[in-house]
């Protein structure tokens, strides 16, 4: 026994708590051994009864009590816990009275048996088992084979495991066994005895074997001799009677044959009389057997109809449970009838599998519904991966929807209007307007274009973006949920059969890479279709002002869509594609805002009504400078919403070197357009002056108005007309006021909004305004000079050569006009 590794055994209770030797004792307690091999010894009254012990659990075992009298201590020894303790004591009495009806709970496994003896005073049986003249100590212990007198002398015997370690040979220590080994006997019971002790032991053995008790065979025969002879006489008479009966049978053999013939004829006649009845009975038995078989296997016989009924009800879980149960019970049955019925079940389930596959590839499909159907097909052990099949068809269906949206938008652009009719049928468009490919018809023959109502009464670009965003927030999210479940292992498919039947690529090797590939394909398609339709809209229209408003609406719709998408759970490649699309749309919107501002400013010349605001500091200006300032300020504020990010996937546009270069350039182009407007107003004035020169000089109307037809209409309404020179002066003052006040405030707004390269923009504006100011100023001086010098033109032509005065040139702020010098 090694070093104990656990708690020591403890005996808490015994049953019964008193008895005689040979009683089966039930011992209860704690830590009575982890296993049967862990139990080493059970000592009762110092005697090891481990050979008779039976282990049930760490809390229960049984043993047979040895010889002994009085209070016997119980000690259990285990390999894991060592020597234990006991809280109870077993009381034993040597005397025992056994009657013929006494129940003996244990029969000792010993060759020695105690025969019943009679009392010494009477010659017959008295029924008492108490022997008269019994010598104490003459009996042998059934567990050890030692005399009772010897048990009190020996110390605690050596355990079997320790004995095998000391003397590893075969043999037995029991005196009555055939393979008795004396060396093992001495090592077990007399390991610490000296020579004198062994001499005493030999003496005790001789005395025990020499003493003859009433239980010896000689005494048994002697006391029951009369009964033995009576039994022999009865057996001899029985043998003689059997011999006589045998001889009488041999002599009467002919009578037996006759009797046998009569019995056979009787049997034949009886069969003839009851032949029909017996046949009906056999048929009835056959019917009963068939009915019993039907009742016994009614689950299988009713299963095909039950499966069809449950399929019609939509109870697919019950269908699978019944099928898997039948498969486990009858798939390998040897009965022909059961095999035929099971084949019918397999055919029904095969049709059910085909139906599930059609439902799985019928798009659109909800993620939870798809997961249920994938689970059903996986349990049916189909020869393809249902999860991957659903993902590929789902992806193709989404791309088809995007193509349909693009075709509708393109058709609207070609027609030049949007869908205004509310009588819209998506299925008609698939047949008439669109050419759906073969795979779309395989997916769902009755499919129609989803969200086609988003194209009602809106520009094609806006309808396209709205439809795509709704597709993203409804069905693409379902596609992503299904793909996430697929790569996480929730839709695992382990069937390794061939996939050649479906002509599809298996994703078994790397499902994450395969899922990322088809997801990138879908997201790229979404991005490209939205980008293409926006670029096509800008390239096919001349009304860029309204198109910019539509683009801003598209960006707002796209941002709301991105905010509702779980992009944080997607890979970085997916987020980059959405971010790049947002960048392109925002950049195009910024360019459109400034282009719209430029076009709006260029149309200000037709809005000029020459309503003059006079101030002491700035002189007189019209309404155009204030309108210009409002247009540019609104454009700057609108650009703020596009330049800076508004969703998690967006980044500032100024992170791009291209936008840092282009933004001040676009801003400057829009602002410089005011100079062009002022120059066109000056051109109109000059054009009017030229018309006046073509009229009759003697006419009083040689200085008629230079303004266009729009202003003429206002003149007709009663508005006062200013002179041409005053008009040029107002135009020049507008330019100067914008340079000093409007542009100063606009540049401060530009800087406060966080836009880049404000110094470069300021330099561009200063250069443009200097050139514009000089150009308009020169026109004003030229106009005034011509009107002043016109009366003297004929006189000067006669005095001086005309070649000196036919040209006009500018030098050091002095203008030479037709030979006259006018100092500004």
Condensed summary:
It is built from 26 helices and 16 strands.
Mind telling me the C-alpha Rg? 60 Å
User: Which residues sit in consecutive blocks of at least 5 with pLDDT less than 50?
Assistant: 105-138, 418-447, 496-506, 690-722, 802-824
User: How many helical elements?
Assistant: 26
Q: Into which percentage range does the β-strand content fall? A: 5-15%
Round the mean pLDDT to the nearest integer and report it: 75
Cα end-to-end separation = 129 Å
Helix content: 55-70%
**Category by helix and strand content:** alpha+beta
Please describe the biggest sheet, giving its number of strands, its sense, and whether it closes into a barrel.
6 strands, mixed
Q: Please count the beta strands (DSSP E, at least 2 residues each).
A: 16
Backbone shape: elongated
Can you walk me through this structure?
Helix content is 56%, strand content 8%. The protein is α+β, with helices and mostly antiparallel strands and 824 residues long. InterPro entries: EXOC2/Sec5, EXOC2/Sec5_N_dom, Ig-like_fold, Ig_E-set, IPT_dom.
Describe the structure using short key phrases:
16 strands, elongated, 824 residues, Immunoglobulin-like, disordered C terminus
SSE map:
Blueprint: E1 10-15, E2 18-19, E3 24-30, E4 39-44, E5 47-48, E6 54-57, E7 60-64, E8 70-78, E9 82-83, E10 85-86, E11 89-92, H1 148-151, H2 160-166, H3 182-189, H4 195-210, H5 217-223, H6 225-251, H7 253-273, H8 275-296, H9 298-301, H10 303-313, H11 316-330, H12 336-360, H13 367-379, H14 386-415, H15 426-432, H16 438-443, H17 460-487, H18 511-539, H19 544-564, H20 572-602, E12 613-615, E13 619-621, H21 624-643, H22 657-693, H23 709-716, H24 724-752, H25 758-789, H26 793-799, E14 809-811, E15 814-817, E16 820-823
Parallel strand pairs: 1-10, 2-11
Antiparallel strand pairs: 1-3, 3-7, 4-5, 4-8, 6-7, 8-9, 8-11, 12-13, 14-15, 15-16
Helix pairs in contact: 10-11, 10-12, 11-12, 12-13, 13-17, 14-17, 14-18, 17-18, 17-19, 18-20, 19-20, 20-21, 20-22, 21-22, 21-24, 22-24, 22-25, 24-25
